Amino acid sequence: MKFEAATIKDIANALGLSTSTVSRALRDSHEISIATKQLVLEYATRINYHPNPIALSLKEKRSRSIGVIVAEIANSFFSQAINGIESVAKDKGYNVIISQTHESFEKEVMTLQYLASRSIDGLLISVSSGTQNLEHLKALHDRGFPIVFFDRIVEDLQTHKVMVDNFRGAYDATLHLVNKGYKHIAVLAGSENLSISRERVAGYLEALAQSRMKPSKPMIKYSQFAGLYIDEVEQSMNQLLKLRPRPDAIFTASDKLTTNCMRVLKAKGIKIPEDMALVGFSNSDLIELLHPPLTVVRQPAFEMGQIATGMLLQLVESKKPVKEFERKILATNLIVQASS
């Protein structure tokens, strides 16, 4: 049996009222008596009536929904950011439609096309590791469609952007390893396409330079899929383990790279930190339960989601075209534990 949502007509027929009277009662019109309003609202609640969002969007020329595109919802950073996004959207009366690219440019393009066809009011996006061509985003942006970038940003589009201080987070993590006495520090970073990868490698290099340690190109490994697949991480680790001198510490520049690097080291019987120290970006709530507990760079993901959503809704609800945009940079926090 096909589900059919309750309508204003159903309420009108049941109560012996006109549809226009029911409609005005639901809108709390002063033209309708308190007794009639109460009668209509009680019956609407009883039959689980909700206004048709499509009809409302046609009337208001707004769907009161926003789209969110991220790499992977299972990633603890993105799940926390989404919680922040939803907390603001709910308070403002907006629904959130979430999609994930799994680091695929093609999936990002198809997802954006689908969301745009659903008449979302605006978009929050953290681009995939494979995104180099921005035409799909530029086409919407040039037509005035509200877009806000968070975490993984692009420089070519003039709009609001929210990120962490990737350079400083990586610098602090690398300097911590230097100060602990490690001499051969490698880095596993995400795709070179991503702004966060370039900024974090730059922070790593600056920390080495400040410590008068010469960087070694073979010690820098990039991951096309940003650590999403453990096979790619294992391949990079195998290359690092063949180096002489072998790395005595590794800085991992993303959540997935950190956890998958730890899996690879444990599978190879390499003890952390006795054989090799490990420090990385991670927002996992389980770092204290790992053996050993991980030293991590934590990002304010929930706050980032909240700020980005506030910026997007400002674009959506503005009566005039917005021409001045903000670039918000949030601080990271180095949490030192036993892995280093």
UniProtKB/TrEMBL annotation:
Occurrences of domain HTH lacI-type (ranges): 6-60
Keyword line: DNA-binding, Transcription, Transcription regulation
Domain of life: Bacteria
InterPro entries with a match to the protein in the record: HTH_LacI (IPR000843), Lambda_DNA-bd_dom_sf (IPR010982), Peripla_BP/Lac1_sug-bd_dom (IPR001761), Peripla_BP_I (IPR028082)
A GO MF term: transcription cis-regulatory region binding
Protein's recorded name: LacI family transcriptional regulator
Name of a matching Pfam family: Peripla_BP_1
